[in-house]
Automatic annotation (TrEMBL):
Name recorded for this polypeptide: Porin family protein
Organism: Pendulispora rubella
InterPro entries per record: Autotransporte_beta_dom_sf
Organism classification: Bacteria, Pseudomonadati, Myxococcota, Myxococcia, Myxococcales
Stretch forming the signal peptide: 1-28
Alphabetical UniProt keywords: Signal
Amino acid sequence: MGIPFGRIGILGFGVACAILFAPGSASAQEGGFGRSPVVSVGLERVGGVSYSKLTADNSDDSASLTAFGLGSVNVNPYTAPRLGIDYISPVGVTVGGGLGFGHFSLSTKNGSRSEDQGSLTVYTFTPRIGYRIPVGPRFDLTPRAGVTFAGGKLSDGNSDASNGVFAVALSGEAVGTIRLTPSFNILTGLGFDHTVHASTSSTRSSSGGGTSTNTDDIKGALFTAQLWLGVGGYFN
């Protein structure tokens, strides 16, 4: 009795996948893909799509924002590009953090006269821990969690007045690493940031020549989800 060609195709596909994704196979070892990395460096959240929702306490009022961009100006510190560095232990546990910073300024020019209209500065710092799962020789999945400290400051170019915001969020994400070469990766991620504390501050010039600062807690909840892209590398 002959063997159906359909079963031969399915069997051959299964054998090919087993050879390709087996960690100890020759394909995995070729070109250094079988060696476990020690350090991961990446430029994360370079672009993608994000959704943020702000909900007020003791009411049904809310505001939401959906944004899409690739390397564009981003005023939301949670979704702004950041540099990530993580140590990868021999058992796969990762320990590291991400750091983001952005500064935007606006000026106008009337003839030869230039005037500063103001600036915006945003930053994030996220210490984190995770676990690297080598799904295949060219693909890793790393779930990780941490705490994000984020802030921003808006300054008025025509005075010393400024407004700022500071927030602390619980952060979690799943990062997929596509290994184009043993040391160069394309990164994809799905991240969530839930604010647990936020406050605003305002600084104004006083009549006596000094400055005064007022700080208020924000009564509400802010949630951000982002599907993002980035680039990175592994180092042994």
